[in-house]
Amino acid sequence: MKKNCANCIYGNIHSQEIVLEDKAILFLEGQSLKHVYSINQGYIKMSKYTENGDEYIIGVLGPGDYIALLALLQNKETYIASATALSKVELRSMEKNEVLKAYQSNQKFKEMCLNCAITRSNLFHNQLSISANTDIKEKIILILSNLANKFGYINNKKMYIDLPFSKTVLANIINVRRETLSRYLSVLQNEKILSVNKNQYILHYVI
């Protein structure tokens, strides 16, 4: 995704640099969609809230990723999820009309945007599919494997995932309580399925 998205927004689109501190809110779900953002440094979590007010994280975006591009291409008038900084974040803000104008006038730009949006949509649906799984141990393994696409690497037939956020955030992504995550991580370690060293997770086999 990063390679596609990194080349997706280009040309003479006017942009403004923005810096967010940790935990700062970029926008909330349902607010009017006015800008598309590109991340230069740092990480943003995309989340939705249930009727009970519980947070459900649908993804974590980092350098090279774009925020709200998919919603814009779907002709949404509002942001479809909330965006909150997980660290200090540097990004560029682009007015949606300028992005749409470039999208409509440049075929290469359009193809790149579509590739970027399709990849993001597939990841979103994959996340929803994983979240629907009722087996917590399997859910943890699948979501860690999914996060490995952005934060991981393979070495000696093991998958290493270095997450730039806490176990509390990971628990929200998996949609379980922090205590539940810790309990199941202990079980998985006892079963020699994975190892945990602070925010590094090592899957002892590659899915």
From TrEMBL:
GO MF annotation list: DNA binding; DNA-binding transcription factor activity
GO cellular component entries: cytosol
Every Cyclic nucleotide-binding domain range: 26-96
Alphabetical list of InterPro entries matching this protein: cNMP-bd_dom (IPR000595), cNMP-bd_dom_sf (IPR018490), Env_Response_Regulators (IPR050397), HTH_CRP (IPR012318), RmlC-like_jellyroll (IPR014710), WH_DNA-bd_sf (IPR036390)
Annotated keywords: DNA-binding, Transcription, Transcription regulation
Domain HTH crp-type: 134-207
Short name of one Pfam family: HTH_Crp_2
Superkingdom of the organism of origin: Bacteria
PROSITE patterns: CNMP_BINDING_3, HTH_CRP_2
Entry protein name: Crp/Fnr family transcriptional regulator
UniProt lineage: Bacteria, Bacillati, Mycoplasmatota, Mollicutes, Candidatus Izemoplasmatales
